[in-house]
Write a structure and sequence with these properties.
Layout (H helix, E strand, L loop, with lengths): L1 E4 L22 E2 L21 H10 L9 E11 L2 E10 L7 E8 L17 E4 L6 E7 L3 E9 L18 E5 L5 E6 L20 E5 L4 E2 L27 E3 L2 E9 L10 E9 L4 E10 L10 E7 L2 E6 L3 E6 L14 E5 L23 E6 L2 E7 L11 E12 L4 E2 L8 E6 L3 E6 L5 E7 L5 E5 L5 E2 L18 E3 L2 E5 L7 E6 L4 E2 L5 E3 L7 E6 L5 E5 L6 E3 L17 E8 L11 E9 L6 E9 L5 E6 H4 L3 E3 L4 H4 L4 E9 L7 E10 L2 E10 L5 E6 L9 E5 L84 E5 L2 E5 L4 E7 L16 H8 L2 H5 L11 H4 L15 E7 L2
Parallel strand pairs: 1-47
Antiparallel strand pairs: 2-8, 3-4, 4-45, 5-7, 5-46, 6-7, 8-44, 9-10, 10-11, 11-12, 13-14, 14-15, 15-16, 17-18, 18-19, 19-20, 21-22, 22-23, 23-24, 23-25, 26-27, 27-28, 28-29, 30-31, 31-32, 32-33, 32-34, 35-36, 36-37, 38-43, 39-42, 39-44, 40-41, 40-43, 46-47, 48-49, 50-51
Length: about 900
Amino acid sequence: MRVFTILALCFSLAFYPVFAQQGPYPVPESPKEGGGGVNIGPAIVLPLLLIPMLIKKLTEGKDLPTYPVLEKKPVNISQSGNTYTINWVIYYANNTNTTQNNISITEGPINNIVPGSLQGPTGWTGTLNSTNTVATWTGNAPPINGYMSATIPTSGPASFNPGSGSGDGYIVIPYRDSGGVLRIYYINHHVTRNHSLPGSNISNAMPFGCINTSTGNLCPGFPKKLPKGDGSGKPSSTNMHPEEYFLKGTQLYYVVTTPDNPTNVNNTSWEFGLGCYDLATDAECGFFKLGALPSGYNGEAYVKGPWKVGNELYIIDMDGKLYCLDANNPSNFCSGLGNYFTGFQLPLGAFPKPGPAWSGNDPWWGPAVAGEIYNNKLYLTTSTNPVHSINILLTVNMTLRTFCFDTAIKGTCMGWSVLPRNITANRFISTFLYYDNSMTPRHVCARLNGSTQSCVNISSGVITTPPTIVSTLNSAYGFGSEITIGTRTYFPDFFQGTNAVHCWDWSAGASCTPTSSYPSWTNNPWNYAVNVDDKGCIWVLGDNAPAMWNFDPNKPLTQGKASRCEDKEGKQNFTFQPWQYCSGPKPFLWTKVEIANTSLSDFSKLIINVKDSANNTIFTYDCLANGSLTANLSSIASQTNGQPLKVEVDYALSSSSNLQNFDVKAYYHASPLEFCLKSQHNCSQSEVKNTVSVPGVQNQPMVEVSLPKPEHCPIYAEGGGNQPSGPSSGGQSGNTGGQDSGSGGVAPWLGGALLTPTPLPGGTGSAGGTGGTGNVGASGGASSGATGGGVQVIEKDGQVQIAPEVKQRCYWKPKAKTPTESKPVVKKKTTSTVKKATTQKPEVKSSTTQTSKPPTKPVKKVAKKPKVQPASTQEMEYICEPEK
């Protein structure tokens, strides 16, 4: 067992804010080559002033330091009355070349650990025993010199599997995380796979899904309930066709209908609004209530939207009321309104509103309305009979109407006519903008049975009959939203034919060439809707949920099927996070970036860019020009130390490369992991003595820490005054007649320089009266407390210890005249004179009442004189003598 007596640190730590996590970050891994290093001894926390030394070592290519495996130190002590609290930090350093998994660090027993004070690194779990005397942290310890990595896929997996449970999917929502991995989110439009109604399934349905496209598998924790957004755990029912959403940075906004009691399908207390889910943190980020469902309604998705027009979000409810929220801050309603309701409402009968109970085969919910946006106007097309039967081949009669809302005036568009169109179609409608050759929208159309459509003029609402798009294709019916890229619009084909996506070129007024149709390469996806990611890859999802697929619209067909998307070139951005330290910032050096698991011959371009927090490029390394896959970061170490490392990889694969993926590795040198806690003690206790251990780590002994309490705990004033008020407090005024206190602050009694045997400073005393003397402590007022006494820190036999405190009586007295007394003002004439004067022993003796003997060792522990001497007509001297 190693034993340490600890009282002071080489620096005092203020509790700095820890570095915030920016989303999911790459997991630290083991380096292929380990670093040796220089053991820097027992003080394992490097002061920030040593950072330049580390950077210098890095620049010169020298070994970076290693650390003791386990250590514990106090960093702050605060006292209140007869009790004091110690802030502790435990340090653990993995000096091996591999990550140590399932490490446990055990602290204690120590009386008494403050509940809620345990802190640890990201991913570690801290727990207290029932008596608050033993703390345990469990987690994985990455190496001090290691790397973090991320993978860049250059070809997608063989399939994307959203899972077959809990419904069928609708539109995909692409999101690329901070590690550069594309994730596809989706919201199923059926609560369960068998088209069950939402009222009986909302409490257990899992319609919210996510796919990691680098693996093709579900994201961790998915699928899940569609959350309300406020962190309450309440779920939302889902629309029949949830194709609208708003993605602001990492925050996904969607419509919500939720009951107060999801397990009670007859619960009459339901509300609706806008929900928020943060895709970076997998956490709910808000619910913005628009209203409550009428009495008797339950189990419905009561709203549809949001449609984003400019900086506003529009949502419509089952009563046809249109609401507007500020897209920058949805807690605010839109400018010019007194509340969320715009005052605009669709007429009754525009679309059916279900009664208080569901009946028959009516597996739909939500307003039967589809929206399009152009030139700050929102066009809403409604259907009076969107579905009648579960039979997907059945056609029904319905009436379509298109309404126009002008967001600038918050009302009906000027000169707009709402004319009913009676049509026969399959089940649902899907609208699209009909462009001319110059890509100016001319019509708002509803796609019916694939080869049929119903349109109105976009300026007036008058019924029009423009040429039918894709009229020669055998499309089942127009179910789901389209996507327009450049002059081309891609329409999904549901259920029949080749399960293809069809392309129409507006500039030519004809089907796209050379490829007009992109048949699916997966089995029967039953395409509902299409969307495009940030690299131009088109993604498709539909009723047959396990069959999500993608295709590259710029590539020809492969064996008669659409060509999969591949990342043969592009830019991938990654953010690698430094470790978190609970006691404040520590050195964390990024040493190099390596492109791994590949070779230079795989690339025709490979450039590494490092960016600052504002995304400005501060370092560029051309791997091909330098003939190396490793970029040394020593030239920018001072700019990236302790900060997230933002790396951009700009690459293009060579024509002969068959590379499927490659890795980016960010190497680092870290300070030891930190674990923080607080313990409370009573001055009546003996010294604080406890152990910390790492069970299971070979050859690592238990570390025992012994911390003596101050000899006078608490310290009271000698002059008859009151108890010191707390840490850093100085003397307090005594009673009238000359009794005063001059005691220094009781705590913090840690401070000063490590291994430096000098008295620690106390607090600042208040002005005393005239008379009594103060205890050893901080500088008091005139005729009051002495300057900084307290305890001393010394080094003995390689250990840091506290020197015994000597009770002394210190005061001012008239200075005695002696024949040997020197006059310092005269002896400052020349340098040599000064040196001679300072070596004369009698002059040293003149600072005490004893003039015949040199000072003894205890005198060296006496605090220094105050900087300001009391005004007096007679020369005074300040002396301290042991209390008798």
